């Protein structure tokens, strides 16, 4: 039933416009003022949605150069409807073993982009920035709970070689171990794909159906 609902919402979002409230991004906004709310047409009726955002300074561990780039892009960090702590900023070894890299979901101008930054030992950006995926925010909405309000359903996290190996348990033969982290890219309560960087390219790792 959830998969059917998600498909209906995705189809409706791509075909029909959303009516949304404008974000208030003043100099010192409260967190509630960073939220995006409105309604989207589904099967001829208006269904409300709420997307919560956090400002870049909610993630003080981000290197200063990356914070500056995200602020230059006008990014806010969208939070999934089930978030209980700041999320969708990931620190992991994505370029190779022992590397110190960052992945961020950036919401700007109504579009969410999955950005990856490779960094040096000093924590400064080397200019290697990747956009692995992007979509209008209103295409990443999902029904949840009993309140009838749609919420944001896109989440990212780091995936260690052990976590990837465990996720591939249903594959025969099981692929060999990877030697550094992958990036888990998930739709809440649904499928997770794993982005992996090797040989100067990003690929999706094989997973069971």
Structure description:
Strand 12 and strand 13 form a beta hairpin. It contains three helices and 14 strands. It is globular, with a radius of gyration of 18 Å. It is mainly beta. Strands 1, 2, 3, 4, 9 and 10 form a six-stranded mixed sheet that branches. Strands 5-6-7-8 form a four-stranded antiparallel sheet. A four-stranded antiparallel sheet has the order 11-12-13-14. It has one domain (2-20, 34-204).
Q: What attributes does this structure have?
A:
single chain, four-stranded antiparallel β-sheet, six-stranded mixed β-sheet, 209 residues, 14% helix, 14 strands, disordered N terminus, globular, mainly beta
Structural class: mainly beta
- Termini Cα gap: 18 Å
Could you estimate the helical fraction of the residues in percent? 10-25%
- Unreliable stretches (pLDDT < 50, length at least 5) are 1-28
Note the beta-strand portion: 35-45%
Biggest beta sheet attributes = 6 strands, mixed
Output the helix-strand order.
HEEEHEEEEEEEEHEEE
> Mean pLDDT, nearest integer?
85
* Whole-number count of domains: 1
Gyration radius (Cα, Å) is: 18 Å
Number of strands: 14
């Amino acid at each position: 039933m959830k998969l059917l609902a998600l498909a209906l919402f995705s189809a409706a979002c791509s075909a029909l416009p959303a009516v949304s409230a404008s974000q208030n991004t003043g100099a010192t906004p409260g967190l509630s003022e960073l939220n995006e709310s409105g309604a989207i047409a589904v099967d001829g009726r208006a269904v409300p949605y709420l997307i919560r955002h956090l400002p870049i300074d909610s993630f003080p561990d981000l290197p200063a150069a990356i914070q500056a780039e995200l602020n230059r892009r006008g990014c806010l960090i969208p939070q999934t409807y089930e978030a209980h702590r700041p999320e969708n900023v990931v620190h992991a070894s994505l370029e190779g073993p022992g590397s110190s890299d960052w992945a961020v979901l950036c919401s700007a101008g109504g579009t969410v982009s999955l950005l990856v930054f490779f960094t040096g030992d000093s924590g400064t950006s080397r200019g290697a920035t990747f956009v692995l995926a992007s979509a209008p925010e209103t295409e990443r909405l999902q029904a949840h709970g009993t309140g009838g309000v749609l919420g944001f359903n896109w989440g990212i996290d780091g995936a260690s070689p052990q976590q990837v190996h465990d996720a591939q348990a249903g594959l025969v033969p099981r692929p060999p171990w990877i030697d550094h982290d992958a990036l888990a890219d998930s739709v809440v309560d649904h499928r997770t794909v794993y982005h992996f960087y090797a040989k100067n390219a990003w690929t999706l790792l094989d997973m069971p159906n």
